[in-house]
Amino acid sequence: MGYMGDYSMCICFPKKFGVTEAGPPVDVKEVFMKYATGGSGMTVEHLRWFLVEVQGDVEASMEDAERIVEEVFKRRHNNVKLSELALSLEDFQFYLFCVDLNPPLLNKVHQDMTAPLSHYFIYTGHNSYLTGNQISSDCSDVPIIKALKRGLRVVELDLWPNFSKDDVLVLHGWTLTTPVELIKCLRSIKEHAFSASPYPVIITFEDHLTPDLQAKVAQSDCDASEHSQCDGDNEACDRLLRPLGAPAYKNLISIPAGKPKGKLREKLKVEKDKVRRLSLSEQKFEKATVCHGTDVVRFTQRNILRIYPKGTRVNSSNYNPLIGWMHGAQMVALNMQGYGKPLWLMHGMFGSNGGCGYVKKPDFLMNVGPNDQVFDAKAKLPVKKILKVKVHMGDGWHLDFKQRYLWSSPEFYTRVGIAGVPADKTMKKTKKRKGNWTPVWDEEFTFQLTVPEIALLRIEVHEHNMSEKDDFAGQTCLPVSELRPGFRAVPLFNRKGEKFTSLRLLLRFEFVQVDI
Questions:
Q1: In this structure, is the dihedral angle defined by the CA atoms of residues 221, 222, 225 and 230, taken in order, positive or negative?
Q2: Which of 267, 208, 272, 263 is nearest to 240 (CA)?
Q3: What structural domains and CATH numbers belong to the chain?
Q4: Helix (H, G, I), strand (E, B) or coil at 116
Q5: Alpha carbon distances (Å) from 128 to 192, 205, 333, 478
């Protein structure tokens, strides 16, 4: 082997970028100077006027403002001497950027909860027991527990006999999914049903059982204390409408569902003295909205309509739930174990009304005009409300994403838009901000809304990547009808809808009423 000679090697490491603290945005400085009356500190009284006039908290009291000031001083200065409390500009910015002190939504139930069930959108899951895909994943009570903790109110269980026909299993029939015992699911539902909401949990059964096993389910269900509904998507459920089934089992069914015969329009027929629940696949529902949109709305004013994903969604993907809500469907069932935009919209809708899992349908879906006229989702409507969203700044990526960007200079931008009726749907984005973990955009967007009652504000943050697809850096979805005006700290979530520890944006919301 010949002599290769000496050689040297130089390794160049990229610069490690530090975190530069961004100061308060210009608008925050200006409002501070205004309400601190030009001084160096904002007193409790100053803060109360800010809450009333800028934040729209017209009922804010001196006690409310005092509590905020005290909490800021505890967290920043370990000091709560009331006689000395006045917020500096940095204290004020700290308060505005605190998600728990200055959230975008009110975390309490505030809607009328005494109306009939048909008057509400209900947080509904599909095949709630599956851990993954629809064909070969495990069946378990774990996804049920997780969904209940998010506020889910409708749990679906598919009931099948075991091999020896002496016990009941939960599984996705005619697939390779591994089963879980029904009693395990029921006990978990009993334990976690009201961990996130005090309002009723509905269990829908897709029933493939013999009368003897139905009797066993009745005993199990009574032991677990939940009323149930029978999902009428199979012939076995029809037996509940006849004397064959066990009486105790039939007594569990509060709203029987079946597969009505005849054409689609006949299925949507409203009967004066009878309330029904109808289940339609997403394809059949879309066909119904195209051909009989107003009939769907009229049906849902009195009856319960459930929509479920088409069978070809074997990877547990989902459809757009807004098509169901804009036609009044109460139970828009999604695969909770997946992730992506449809579930983000679901999380946004049911962030309403304190996250209790029941959202009162807007009046326009329940109103009946002259000649039995109801809301028509295809009709061209005038702009009813204008929403202005100013994206000031963001923070927290250096904490939650530190492994990803340890040796890089981030370049963040924000996408802001509306999901709703087709006329309101839009998406816009800020400029990219390079080299700062605390990006400041200070860009305002205006959205003209024809149906603000069901519009959802979509927000996504991305990090620009020149060589590959831009990286996801957080998202959230908020119900427009419940946005609190003024400066608000908005937390961000990952792709699965789980809240990041530190990621948040500082936004300002302003509503402009339009004279119609």
A1: positive
A2: 208
A3: 26-97 (1.10.238), 117-210+250-372 (3.20.20.190), 385-513 (2.60.40.150)
A4: coil
A5: 14, 11, 10, 24
Distance CA 133, CA 335 (A): 9
In the predicted structure, residue 47 carries a pLDDT above the cut 90:
yes
Q: CB count, 10 Å around CB of 297? A: 24
Q: Which two tokens stand for residue 235?
A: 């012939």
What is the distance between the alpha carbons of residues 455 and 349, in angstroms, rounded to a whole number? 9
- C-alpha–C-alpha distance, residues 197 and 123, integer Å: 11
The H or E element containing residue 446 is strand 440-449
Report strand pairing: 168-170 vs 426-429.
unpaired
Q: List the end-to-end C-alpha distance of the chain, in Å, as a whole number.
A: 90
pLDDT in tens, 475-512: 999 999 999 999 999 999 999 999 999 999 999 999 99
Q: How do residues 347-406 score in pLDDT, each as one tens digit?
A: 999 999 999 999 999 999 999 999 999 999 999 999 999 999 999 999 999 899 866 655
Six token digits for residue 413: 């931008």
Instruction: Confirm if 267 and 240 have CB atoms less than 8 A apart.
Output: no
- Please state, in angstroms and rounded to a whole number, the distance separating the CA atoms of residues 321 and 124: 11
- Report the DSSP pairing between strands 168-170 and 154-161: antiparallel
* E strand or H helix at 349: helix 341-349
Per residue in 245-301, pLDDT (tens digit) is 455 777 777 777 766 677 888 889 998 888 888 999 999 999 999 999 999 999 999
Check pLDDT > 50 for residue 244: no
Residue 356 and residue 231: Cα distance in Å, rounded? 23
**Burial label, 278 (beta-carbon count in 10 A; 0-12, 13-18, 19+):** buried
**φ, ψ dihedrals at 79, nearest 5°:** -140, 125
H helix or E strand, kind and range, residue 69: helix 62-77
Per-residue pLDDT at 80? 64
Q: What is the mean pLDDT of the chain?
A: 88
| DSSP H or E run through 89 | helix 89-96
Distance of CA 44 to the CA centre of its chain: 35
Three-state DSSP at 19 gives coil
Catalytic site residues? 126, 172
**209 within 8 A of 159, measured Cβ to Cβ:** yes
pLDDT digits (tens, 9 = 90+) for 120-154: 999 999 999 999 999 999 999 999 999 999 999 99
Instruction: Return the pLDDT at 259.
Output: 63
